[in-house]
What does this fold into?
Amino acid sequence: MKPRAASGLAWTLWGFALCFAVAGLLLGVLSLPAELPEGREPFLASIVVLDVLLVLYGTLGALIASRRGRNVIGWIFCFVAVSLGVLSFTSGYADYALYVRENPLPGAVLAAWVPNWLFIPAVYVSMCYLFFLFPNGRPASPRWRPVIWAATIVAAVATLASALEPGRLFSFPTVENPFGLAEPFGRVAIVANEVTNLAAMLVFLVSLASIVARLRRARGRERQQLKWITYAAALTATSFAISFLAGSLGQGWRTASDAFFVLGVAGFAGIPVAAGIAILRYRLYDIDVIVNRTLVYGSLTITLVLVYVGSVATLQYVFRALTGGDSQLVIVASTLAIAALFNPLRRRLQSFIDRRFYRRKYDAAKTLEAFGLRLRDEVDLEHLTGEFLAVVERTVQPSHTSLWLRGLAAVPRRPEPGEEREGG
It folds into this structure.
């Protein structure tokens, strides 16, 4: 895929995912007053979590895919974002269409059916592939290819079994599965669902072993890149596995199962954060310039909007208390203040982000700046040579340094104006 097409597709998917997230959040809020079946909690909290995860995965996925279209890692993040967006929207729409309206809206049953199976490819499949293929989009070695194929088969069977299992839907206990299979195929779907639940956890842990093995063989910068994502992957995989095992032991372990599930969700959210740290601190995928600009101008935009809204609201309140009415002068003054703050605030944010995420580059710039100041006052060539070599070692960090100085011929001194020349 050409770079321009990859970039357009990546950001289009990000836009679709964001639209789904906003729509799902709105429907979740509208569904809060609804009378839900016994044992069912409102989906709004889950939708908020899905939307936060969507922003994390979608932003990073669009950045990677737009610059490295041939690397599957960016597309995995984009797939997670779109899947989470669809989950957010269908969950909110199903609640609103089934329980808020007196007569169910069109597509309500279909919307309730989608979350019953989509979480498997959204979470399980994407994370397994991410652990197998991070960071270069290829397995750690050819011997992992059969394991990846096994994970694909397990994921396909688990998804189909969840989608076609007869009976009432797990998240919507008042709705019968519209695509549930009749006997004897329904029994096959139930058994396949139970078998793949255990197999999925085993494959999930094997995929974690893949990235751990890659970390052990990595050296230098690649090891630093893998370290962050491996920690987040280990937290995600082990927490979900323990949650599943605790849940299978009975109601007495329900609290422990829920606690480890929440910890697994935290690890799942930490994966794009860890990948972002690898990009920012260790130049993974060479897109740190885009990320840097996104952080700076994104933070700048949010800060300026908050300052503008806060200043307008505060000054209008003060003006209204003094005069009893609003004033357009407040808006003009706030706009001028924002214009005056733009450059100083941008420089401060840039400096903060450079210090926090680009420490080596920031320290190198400061070292060179300090050396330039000393250079103006230094006249001892030997001392200057030592200072120069020390600066090169601290900033560039070469394996060996040497300095060659070309011999200089003596330059006759010209007499200053007003000095008398000897000999007339």
Summary: The chain has three domains: 3-286, 287-357, 358-401. DSSP finds 13 helices and no strands in the chain.
